[in-house]
Amino acid sequence: MRPDGTEPGDGNIAGGNVAVQEPGNLEVLCGPLLNYKHMGADGNSRQSWNGSVLIVTKPCEQPPVLQLQCLGPVSNVQGPIDGAGGVQPTVDGVKLFANPTSAFWRFRLTVPMESYEARWQYTIPGFRHVDEKHTMTSWNFIVPSVEESMRIMFHSCNGFSVGTDLGHWQGPLLWHDVLRLHAQRPFHVMIGGGDQIYNDSVRTEGPLKEWTDISNPHRRRAHPFPNSLREECDAFYFKNYVKWYGTEPFATANAQIPQINIWDDHDIIDGFGSYTDHFMRCAVFRGLGGVAFKYYCLFQHHNAPPVSTFTTDAPQTMQASGGTAGPDQRQLENSYVYKETQDEPSWIVGSKPGPYVEETSRNLYMRLGKRIAFAGIDARTERTRHQVNYPETYDAIFARLKREFAAANGEIKHLILLLGVPIAYPRLAWLENILSSPLITPIRLLNKRFGWGGSFFNKFDGQVDLLDDLDDHYTARQHKSERRNLIQRLQQLSSRFSVRVTILGGDVHLAAVGRFYSRVKDQVPIDNDPKYMINIISSAITNKPPPKAVANLLASRNKIHHLDRHTDETLMKIFNEQPGGKDKSSASNKVTMPSRNYACITEVTAPANNPVASGEQAELSKAPKDGHDPLHPGEQDAGTKYRSSDGVSNVTGKAGGLDIAIRVEIDPADIEGKTEGYGFSGMFRSSQLTRHYVLCYITPHRHHV
Questions:
Q1: In angstroms, what CA-CA distances link 588 with 278, 428, 553, 556, 636?
Q2: pLDDT over threshold 60, residue 556
Q3: Beta carbons within 10 angstroms of residue 255's beta carbon
Q4: Where are the beta strands (DSSP E) in 496-542?
Q5: For labelling alongside 41, which of 58, 338, 509, 627 has CA 20 to 30 A away?
Q6: Nearest Cα to 288, choosing from 264, 304, 309, 257?
């Protein structure tokens, strides 16, 4: 019996003649893709690292296997350590999904965490990629020591919007820079904040082109989503994933750096969830959500998909049953779907299906090494124009966090929270008011009748195209209460468990650093301020940035905002100069950077010869007047000269904090993807004022470290 419950030789594909490969000849269409799942403990309370590898092959009779071995410490050059940790050298592949043209295979990996940072190697015997450009047959990944927190790379918007000039914005070039840093000092995990792939061309080059071109909005909304259209969309999404996840250098990173992913609209289609409710409930959008969810499960989470997706000619699929659409036997013809025996330990599953995707949300929790916890909120499955997530989902997430923090007994010092969009970001309510005002109505009518206004209006519900992006933001007026409640619950969590909350957000195609903090006039030391949270905004790693004028407009809106009576927020000045001397924004704009980018996050160590990292000295040149000034020493001198800007160092800030770098592309014409780094440090959160930490202010001319 094989791990997937089938006997060897059983392709488990009902009906039809399926060509299978000979043993030892594994024709790979996509992969390998490496994921991080969670940390665990064996019967002897020894910590283990748990992950998975996914490959997509042509149908094959014999299940593939994966061979795994420890090569020892990262610094070791002596070769592999035989039998390290007693790990079984061979892992059997489990078939998650198969049809007459492809099969998805998952390999579960569980390795012990050692007293040293370890390099592991995996090999798949018989591996031969159908694209002859992919010649590697073994791959390495790095597991932190049992006493380390993970070194993190964060990215979002890894693809191109429809209409992008691909001659100018060439491919996923910044992944070259990611791999250079990974070779210099390895990343233990890379977090995808949404839009890992752009599927928008399904409406311009794919099977939805005719539907999109229907001019009458009522006919477009009433259009069915039969099984024939589902099959066409299914084939489109599969091919697009295989193409993009096989594109270098992204493909090499996928095989070597374990991924954690949450999806966003472009993983489905641009604006999904944020159009008007009556349009979002149309059959085509609901069907598209189901197809996208299927391949999101497979490619991005390495989990079996639902047994079938929504179609209008199979009534049992039109209403979620048990958290998923009912089975449609036509979709199971010549296909096999693995039945998962249990949910992933890292999942926090929503209590009810989304309004437009007939599936429950998959929110995430896992430990990222010794002192960092991670939570990711699935902000797309439950999204409507008026909500990001159900209240019950927030309750489940915070209940899980409280259980995990209590069980950790103070060991967790940081919570990294992933959101699809920024949450500490300039308000654009005035622009929302203009775009949704009655003044736009006559222009919209002219667009509907004569096409006047062109791309200013979207092809779906006829609203101003920019509105779905604005409605996505937590700072949008309809999300104001939800946003405030989320931040206040995070503040309570930070206060109760003495953890520092760091928020990740993407989507907006530029880089920035927002932060919440106690009002400056209250003089609460950041070291002991549960309200101090930074929002690292890193987007896009591949998509084109907005024009300079947009970045400068956002910078001009960087006011001191008041979340409540005790919490203020604003963007931090970090972009002290233009990347590589290339003008990206106005000289006065120090807070938004319209250039492709990604972020690095590393816990600060405390070597004996580094007084700053040891916490013995912490100085600000002057007391902050308001939130536009540096609020603690880790924000002072932020930018290109700050040591953490190289994306490698982690000895600049106070011990226990996080060193952060935002790596910004210098020139999109440079195929090597070279970047300029901007660095700063996030402050460690103390349960009480630490005696050896003295916050003082010195005169500007005095030298300080």
A1: 44, 20, 12, 10, 18
A2: yes
A3: 19
A4: 500-505, 512-518, 533-537
A5: 338
A6: 309
Contacts of 395 (CB under 8 A, 6+ apart): none
- For residue 29, give the CATH number of its domain: 2.60.40
Of 240, 243, 266, 246, whose CA–CA distance to 175 is shortest?
246
399 secondary structure, DSSP code = H
Number of C-beta neighbours around residue 98 at 10 A: 22
Q: Taking the C-alpha atoms of 543, 545, 550 and 554 in order, what is their torsion angle to the nearest 10 degrees? A: 90
Cα–Cα distance, 390 to 395 (Å, whole number): 9
- Give the CA count within 13 Å in the CB-facing half-sphere of 383: 29
**Which residues have a Cβ under 8 Å from the Cβ of 503 and sit 6 or more positions away?**
416, 417, 418, 419, 423, 424, 533, 534, 535, 536
Residue 698: which residues within 8 A CB-CB, separation 6 or more? 619, 620, 621, 704
- Mean of the pLDDT values across residues 64-84? 77
Q: Considering the domain boundaries, does residue 71 fall inside one? A: yes
- Find, among 380, 492, 485, 473, the residue nearest to 423 by Cα: 473
Q: For residue 133, is it within any domain?
A: yes
Could you give phi then psi for residue 660, rounded to 5 degrees? -130, 135
C-beta atoms surrounding 67 within 10 Å:
15
Give pairs for 161-164: CB < 8 Å, separation 24+: 161/198, 161/200, 161/266, 161/270, 161/543, 161/544, 162/200, 162/201, 162/203, 162/204, 162/270, 163/455, 164/543, 164/544
The encoded tokens of residue 554 equal 């956002």
Q: Are 598 and 541 in contact (CB under 8 A)?
A: yes
Can you tell me the mean pLDDT for 356-376?
A: 96
Q: Per the structure, how many domains does the chain have? A: 1
pLDDT at 122 over 70: yes
Ranges assigned E (strand) in 146-277: 152-155, 189-192, 259-261
State phi, psi for 369 to the nearest 5 degrees. Answer: 85, -155
Between the alpha carbon of residue 661 and those of residues 507, 536, 593, 678, the distances in Å are 18, 10, 13, 5
DSSP 464: B
Specify the pairing of strand 567-571 against strand 512-518. antiparallel
Q: Within 10 Å of residue 441's Cβ, how many Cβ atoms? A: 10
Whether residue 23 lies inside any domain: the answer is yes
Q: Model confidence over 253-284: pLDDT tens digits?
A: 999 999 999 999 999 999 899 888 999 999 99
Is the CB of residue 515 less than 8 Å from the CB of residue 424?
yes
Has residue 6 been placed in a domain? Answer: yes
pLDDT one-digit tens code per residue, 490-514: 999 999 999 999 999 998 899 999 9
Q: What is the mean pLDDT of the chain?
A: 85
| Position 157 confidence tier, pLDDT thresholds 50, 70, 90 | very high
d(CA 703, CA 101): 67
DSSP category for residue 114: -
6-60 tens-digit pLDDT:
333 333 333 333 444 444 679 999 999 999 999 998 666 789 999 999 999 999 8
- The pair of structure tokens assigned to 290 is 């189901």
Residue 320's H or E segment, with its range, is strand 320-321
Among left, alpha and beta (phi > 0; psi -120 to 50; other), residue 89 is alpha
Range of the domain at 84: 1-144
